[in-house]
Write a structure and sequence with these properties.
Helix Hairpins, Immunoglobulin-like, 2 domains, elongated, binds copper (II) ion
């Protein structure tokens, strides 16, 4: 081998090692799979996915293995002559029975999981979720109701020519002004609907996704087993700002949930009482309220008819 060749090979090896080195550090950050579920049903779905995946890998190895071996060992240049046979009962039975067994092996656990996904009975908490262009509305059983929109800083950053480096923003486009709060280890039923077009309520770590369809109320549920903040997005193309209506769910201990809900109720009642009163609003007060709504701070939603001083 000449010196020139050696030189090229060395350069190639250096480049390859740099590439692989870069890949391994990049791979440490990225995971090629679903997000790790935090619900029992989510784990079942994940396990089913892995089961089917490995079955596919095994089938792939057998089929492509046989193909490659046949191509190499039985090639024409080696003088191979194709066998000439018609009808083989053994082969026909095998290629019918084996896929049938595989299908049953997948269908049995899949059906059992599917039934669990659809079983919304005996819920501890029920929350109505309404999709709107382009935000979410959450309503609790005690009357607490609020809107959840994209965080205003993220909203500002996403604007064209904002000059903000979005790669430096944590959880970019996955942050809201008012999070949905639910208790840990409790079965939470979601009644999902829409006020305008079709949206989809999706929280990957709960393995939960349900279409929000105007005029229909769909049901789904989740029982997260770990406290924490979980993020999702609208999963149905619903108009120009479809990408800007994230979902953030805070899972907290029951005590913390009760305190939060009670505080939210007081806040909600105060706003409702203010709206129902005969108070006459000045322009400045209305401007201040409007600014809150515009910036996304108007958390508690009450449909109001305010009296305006002319
Ligand atoms: Cu949507």
């Amino acid at each position: 081998m000449s010196f020139k060749h050696n030189n090229i090979m060395t350069k190639g090896l250096v480049l390859l090692s740099l590439f692989l080195g870069g890949m391994s550090s990049a791979l440490a950050e990225y995971k090629l799979n679903f997000q790790e579920p935090v619900t029992a049903v989510g784990r079942e779905i994940f396990d089913l996915h892995m089961l089917v995946f490995w079955i596919c890998v095994a089938i792939g190895i057998v089929v492509f293995g046989m193909m490659i071996i046949s191509i190499i060992l039985h090639r024409k240049s080696r003088g191979a002559v194709a066998s000439d046979f018609h009808e083989s009962s053994t082969v026909e039975v095998l290629w019918t029975v084996i896929p049938f067994i595989i299908l049953i092996a997948v269908a049995v656990p899949a059906t059992s999981t599917l039934l669990k996904i659809e079983d919304t009975s005996n819920a501890d908490v029920t929350i109505k979720v309404t999709g709107l262009q382009w935000k979410w509305k959450y309503e609790y059983e005690n009357g607490v109701s609020f809107l959840s929109s994209l965080n205003s800083d993220h909203n500002k950053a996403r604007q064209r020519n904002s000059g903000i480096d979005v790669t430096k923003i944590k959880n970019y486009l996955l942050e809201v002004d008012n999070e949905l709060v639910i208790p840990v280890n409790k079965k939470v039923r979601f009644l999902v609907t829409s006020d305008d077009v079709i949206h989809s309520f999706w929280v990957p770590k709960f393995a939960m996704k349900k279409d929000a369809i105007p005029g229909y109320v769909n049901e789904t549920w989740a029982m997260p087993e770990k406290t924490g903040t979980y993020r999702g997005q609208c999963a149905e193309l619903c108009g120009k700002d479809h990408a800007f209506m994230p979902i953030v769910v805070k899972v907290v201990e029951q005590g913390e949930f009760d305190t939060w809900l009670a505080a939210k109720k007081v806040e909600s009642d105060a706003v409702a009482a203010e709206a129902a009163s005969d108070k006459v609003w000045s322009k400045d007060e209305l401007m201040a309220k409007g600014a809150d709504v515009y910036s996304g701070k108007g958390g508690v939603l009450v449909v109001t008819v305010l009296k305006v001083r002319v």
